[in-house]
Amino acid sequence: SYKVPIGGGLVLEAGIYPSHIGYESFFSKDNWNYTRGWMGEFSPYYQAGVKASYAFDAHWSAQVHFLNGWQTIGDNNRAKAVGTQIAWNGDRAAVAFNTFAGPELPGDDSHWRLFGDLTAQLKATHWLALGATADLGWQDRPQRAALWHAAGLYARAALSAFAAIALRAEYYDDRDGFF
């Protein structure tokens, strides 16, 4: 990827970069539980395209993404997808709302995928952090649309500078068996 800072808060990035969606990262070292839950596995780890991000002030920021698609480097159809993020970060808490919209079936430019992801994190104490996330997705298909939703709760307790214990509780419902 290549980043270009412009003015006081605008950054343009192009290439292959980590996804703006989800609480859990592709990089295991960045996940409290080291592994990823179903929500992480069934949302994109990486994206290929162009991203513009802007920091409005010390707390609020926004992003818009023009993407080749959902977890794909080369586009699988002729249409592009769009992603967005609005985020607030404070000293002890952070919240982000992420979206994805675009045609995502191979060779099909007319059946859209819509996805929303909400994440929150709270530093309850100097040793305890809590997190929560919720997802809702919809895929239009020629035969029948698919709907899925999920939620997760996370807790991480730092035992020392080098060790921590973490818990994850997750609910995932893919009623139409899309993923």
Tell me what you see in this structure.
By secondary structure, this protein is mainly β. Helix content is 2%, strand content 55%. The chain contains one helix and ten strands; from the N terminus they run ββαββββββββ. It has one helix at 38-41; strands at 2-6, 10-18, 46-55, 60-67, 81-89, 93-103, 112-123, 128-139, 146-158, 164-173. It has a ten-stranded antiparallel beta sheet with strand order 1-2-3-4-5-6-7-8-9-10, with no helix packed on it. A hairpin with a 3-residue loop joins strand 5 (81-89) and strand 6 (93-103). 22% of the residues are buried. The model has no long low-confidence stretch (mean pLDDT 93).
TL;DR of this structure?
By secondary structure, this protein is mainly β. It has one helix spanning 38-41, and strands at residues 2-6, 10-18, 46-55, 60-67, 81-89, 93-103, 112-123, 128-139, 146-158, 164-173.
Structural topology:
Elements: E1 2-6, E2 10-18, H1 38-41, E3 46-55, E4 60-67, E5 81-89, E6 93-103, E7 112-123, E8 128-139, E9 146-158, E10 164-173
Antiparallel strand pairs: 1-2, 2-3, 3-4, 4-5, 5-6, 6-7, 7-8, 8-9, 9-10
Helical segment count: 1
Stretches where pLDDT is under 50 for at least 5 consecutive residues are: none
Strand portion: over 45%
Tell me how many strands there are. Answer: 10
Average pLDDT metric: 93
What series of H and E elements makes up the topology?
EEHEEEEEEEE
Largest sheet: 10 strands, antiparallel
Structural class: mainly beta
Distance between the termini: 29 Å
Shape: globular
Radius of gyration equals: 17 Å
- Fraction in helix: under 10%
Q: Report strand order across the widest sheet.
A: 1-2-3-4-5-6-7-8-9-10
